User: Fold ABC transporter permease from Thalassospira lohafexi.
Amino acid sequence: MDWIVPLILTVITASTPLLLAATGELITEKSGVLNLGVEGMMLVGAISGFAVTVSSGSAILGILAAIVAGMLMSLIFAFLTLTLMANQVATGLALTIFGVGFSALVGSGFVGFPLDPLPSLSIPVISTIPVIGPILFSQDFLVYASIAIVIATGWFLTRTRAGLILKAVGDSHDSAHAIGYRVIRIRYMATLFGGAMSGLGGAYLSLSYTPMWAENMTAGRGWIALALVVFATWRPGRLLAGAYMFGCISVLQLHAQSAGVNVPSQFMSMLPYLATVIVLVIISSDYTKIRLNAPACIGKAFRPAQ
Assistant:
């Protein structure tokens, strides 16, 4: 138990930013929009949250700043793709490149600043229960928020009228427009939600997982979050399981290196990304399942009839 509990705790923290960003992207893609700029939005959210927290001394303000920063980044994407009809794939890639450069520029003055991680919400008595207590009842509030958001997303998509409308827009924007739904407005809102969650995931990285700022600190997590949506076949429940699976792979390669496993460190470092590729190949081989669950209009531009 001396090493199992710390290992599980590390897996939880490693999975949380993936879960937050992937949940936002799931809602975005359910509306029929493909935003490949998750990595850039996470980086901008990470530096915004860190900079505001260091400057103000308030982690809450930092988290709010990260959410707003992610939404602003997604608003740029939405304006270019939904209003100006730019190509979604090219615009998303450009957004990531912009986010990498912009975050490095803003963060150049915050490298090396110390910061206390987000406090754990220890529940008296319960959190002292061996094994279960530290794992389930001694996390910071963003860990609990990430799980609650996934549950709320599943309920929203399956139990609410707004969720059904969102899926209708993603499956057939022409039909949704024909019966009176504002396709562009709905996609704007879904894209903004995706940006907010990506910014929140970035804030978790810089405020809790590794409470510091380092250039390009997401290290490809935005791309893993994108792959997670496909891995989960656009289902929130599978998204939760997938995020924790990838988090486990990321942590295990670190523990293997520290344990002196006789494998090149470069190979161990690439394990999470290798696992991503393998999972995507396996999922893509079942085209029927992809076709049944993927939004039919994903990535397709929509221009309302005049």
Notes: The longest helix spans residues 4-30. Residues 4-293 form a domain with the ABC transporter involved in vitamin B12 uptake, BtuC fold (CATH 1.10.3470.10).
